[in-house]
Specification:
The chain has 2 domains: about 5-35 and about 95-180, Immunoglobulin-like (Sandwich); about 45-90, Membrane-bound Lytic Murein Transglycosylase D, Chain A, CATH 3.10.350. It is built from 2 helices and 12 strands. It is mainly β. About 30% of the residues are buried. A hairpin with a 4-residue loop joins β11 (about 160-170) and β12.
Length: about 190
Amino acid sequence: MLVGVLVACAVALAACETQSARHATRSTSSTTVSSSTTTTGPPITYQVKSGDTLTAIASFFGVPTAVLAATNHLANGDQLTVGQVLQIPRRPPIQLNVAPPAGPAGEAFKLELIGAQAGEAIRFEVDVPDGDKFTGPPHTASPEGSVTASYQTGLGDTPGMYKVVATGDHGSSVSASFRVEPSSPNA
């Protein structure tokens, strides 16, 4: 039987709900697995029009207002000038990192999504080698477009490759995998 826990918050790993009373120690490994190989292109230029606000421009291009202000060295984003040319950074490519890339049954795996749209509702689905699926509740991407979650395996979970698919309600979709090894008899 699949025992799973999906824990998430916008920026930091936090404990929310569990489906089992079992707890495992989180790994401190920083190794990641990524399914994305695309690169970010050069910035886009945008000429400010009458009535434009920094917030509206940032929202239109899907970048955080603070990033847009910093990219253009704007001390006060409320003071845009008609005709002013802004550099609009492209969103980073969507990427899903899993750490550690492999671990024993009973271990927690950290899922970190970057490159989603700010405020996008992201849902993680974990596909298990025996055909079971675990779908967690939706989590809202931070203003920087990130979501961090944890998937807790149980000691009796099926060893093999687990596939994680992160899907957003604004079109973000990415996947990655991690391996669950048989738990040691002394665990």
